[in-house]
Design a protein that fits this description.
It is a single chain. Strand 7 (170-175), helix 8 and strand 8 form a beta-alpha-beta unit. The relative contact order is 0.13. With 235 residues, the chain is α/β, with parallel strands linked by helices. An eight-stranded parallel barrel has the order 1-2-3-4-5-6-7-8, surrounded by five helices. It is globular and about 50 Å long. Helix content is 39%, strand content 17%. The chain is built from nine helices and eight strands.
Length: 235
C-alpha cells in the first residue's frame, strides 16, 4: 500500500516523506494549469509518483462553450498525469442523478480521458447514491471515507458492505475526518487513532491490500500526525 498527501504547488513536494502525491486543481481557486504542470515536473524530477485531481471541472457539462472549455482543460490535465486523474461523481443541477444528455456527456468525457490516462471516480457530490453511479461507470474507484461520514453514512459499515465487484475496482482511498464545520465544510480534519474513518481503513485492509491512501487534511501543520496514524494502522 502506498501513502500520500495532496499538494497545490511545487514547493510542497518533499515537505513530507510520502510514496505518492495528489496534485489538486481547484480551477478558479488555483492552482493554474501552468502551476499544475510545474508541480508535475517537480514530482518527475524527484521521482515521486503522482495523480492529478480536478475538483470543479464537470465532465457532464453540455452547454456550448463551457463544454469545450472543460474538455480542453480536462484533456490537458490528463496528458500531464502520471498514475492518472481522480474525478468526482456528478449530479444534475438540482442534485438528482445524471440522466439523458448530461449522463451521456459524462460517459463520453470519461471514455475520452480514459484513452489518455487512468481515471478513477470518487464519491463526492451524491455519496448516498454512489453505488448507482459507480455501477453506471466503468474503471477505477476512489473511496472517500470522510465524504461517507459527512453524508451521514457510517464509513465502517459501508466498507463492510461493499460488493466484491466494487471492492476490486478501488485503487485509491481519500482519508480525512468529519469533525464539525470549518472553512465551510465539516470534514477534511486531521485523523485521530479511533475516528470512524480510521476504523473504516482498518476494515478495508482486512478485505483488500492493493490500494493507495491519500490524505486530504486542511490543517497542513498537522499532516505528520495523520501520516503516523495511517502508518501504524498499516503495519
Amino acid at each position: 500500500m502506498r501513502l500520500g498527501t495532496r499538494v497545490m504547488s511545487k514547493d510542497e513536494i518533499g515537505r513530507f516523506s510520502v510514496d505518492l502525491i495528489q496534485i489538486s486543481y481547484w480551477k478558479r481557486f488555483g492552482p493554474t494549469l501552468s502551476e499544475v504542470e510545474e508541480t508535475a515536473f517537480r514530482c518527475r524530477e524527484q521521482g515521486v509518483p503522482y495523480v492529478i485531481h480536478p475538483v470543479f471541472t464537470p465532465l457532464s457539462e453540455t452547454r456550448t462553450g463551457l463544454k469545450e472549455e472543460n474538455l480542453k482543460e480536462l484533456t490537458t490535465l490528463a496528458r500531464m498525469a502520471d498514475l492518472g486523474i481522480i474525478v468526482h461523481d456528478e449530479t444534475l443541477p438540482d442534485g438528482r442523478r445524471l440522466t439523458g444528455e448530461p449522463l451521456a456527456q459524462y460517459q463520453r468525457t470519461l471514455t475520452l480521458l480514459s484513452n489518455i490516462c487512468s481515471c478513477s471516480i470518487e464519491n463526492a457530490n451524491n455519496t448516498p447514491d454512489i453505488d448507482w453511479f459507480w455501477g453506471e461507470m466503468e474503471g477505477s474507484i476512489t473511496l472517500d471515507l470522510g465524504h461517507f461520514e459527512a453524508s451521514g453514512i457510517d464509513s465502517v459499515e459501508k466498507v463492510r458492505s461493499l460488493p466484491d465487484e466494487i471492492l476490486q475496482r478501488v485503487d485509491y482511498v481519500h482519508l480525512h475526518r468529519k469533525n464539525g464545520e470549518h472553512s465551510g465544510i465539516v470534514d477534511h480534519w486531521p485523523l485521530t487513532e479511533d475516528c470512524r474513518e480510521v476504523q473504516a481503513l482498518r476494515e478495508l485492509l482486512r478485505r483488500k491490500k492493493d490500494f493507495s491512501v491519500i490524505l486530504e487534511i486542511n490543517e497542513i501543520d498537522r499532516i505528520p500526525e495523520s501520516l503516523a496514524i495511517v502508518k501504524k494502522v498499516c503495519r
